[in-house]
Model the fold of this input.
Amino acid sequence: MALIERYQKTNEVGFWEGKIPMNYVYTCGRAGEKFFREIINGKIFGTKCAQCNITYVPPRIYCEKCFERLEDKYIDVGTKGKVHTFTQCYETFDGNKKETSSIVAMVKIDGTEGGFVHWIGEVDFKDVHIGMPVQAVFKPAKSREGNILDIKYFVPSGSE
Ligand SMILES: [Zn+2]
Done:
């Protein structure tokens, strides 16, 4: 086949196997730093654009709609949210089988745009549903490190 012809059968496409070793440092930026410094205190912070009436969680330094600078517009958004979507996991991140399954959900913090993926705990999978009110459970203060895992998981808050 000449190089200018298109493949008609995708199983004819060649490939090679290999590995690309990669080490990186991902900086979280000023808004991310504020977010993680407040997580240590057991709080979830966002930024609010008063013009658009949008609160971003995790916080953003600029409003995505009007480009207003939000760096000094941090607000405590509380620790309650709702399950936006969820699934059950039977493997760890590195592909090993777990002894017990876990529930992973996209949680939207109440009154905000966005949210984050985290575990749901202290509930059976069959009892979880989209829109279920949940509340963050933080690790004990002494063992917090300023990362998203300072939130142990979210639990049903019981107030729909
Ligand atoms: Zn805005």
